[in-house]
Amino acid sequence: MSNEPIDIQLHLIELESKIAFQEDTVNCLHEELLAHQKRIDQLQRQILTLAEKLQQLPQDSEILRPEEEPPPPHY
Fold first, then answer.
1. How far apart (Å, rounded) are the C-alpha atoms in residues 35 and 52?
2. pLDDT by residue (tens digit) across 2-55?
3. How far is CA 30 from CA 16, 25, 34, 60, 67, in A?
4. How far is CA 27 from CA 13, 24, 36, 66, in A?
5. How far is Cα of residue 33 from the mean position of the Cα atoms in its chain?
6. What is the pTM (predicted TM-score) of this model?
7. What is the 3-state secondary structure (H, E, C) of the chain?
8. Which whole-number Å values give the CA distances from 15 to 12, 21, 29, 67, in the listed order?
């Protein structure tokens, strides 16, 4: 019976340790998620900029729409 308080104390220490590791993991994942979201936002802005530039190209430019492209030489 004298070991019971020690067992409970050791179990409590183990649980506190696990919680601390989980908190650290959650914080790391949160930071990673923020970094990914920042990168996604940056890529979305780049895509919008490219789309705007494509729309500003003159209609007689050398870039053809996909349906106007000739078939590849192996056809």
1. 26
2. 678 899 999 999 999 999 999 999 999 999 999 999 999 999 999 999 999 888
3. 21, 8, 6, 48, 44
4. 21, 5, 14, 46
5. 6
6. 0.60
7. CCCHHHHHHHHHHHHHHHHHHHHHHHHHHHHHHHHHHHHHHHHHHHHHHHHHHHHHCCCCCCCCCHHHCCCCCCC
8. 5, 10, 21, 63
Rounded distance, CA 46 to CA 40, Å? 10
For tokens 């078939």, what's the residue?
A: 71
> For 39-54, what is each residue's pLDDT tens digit?
999 999 999 999 998 8
Amino acid in the structure at residue 51: A
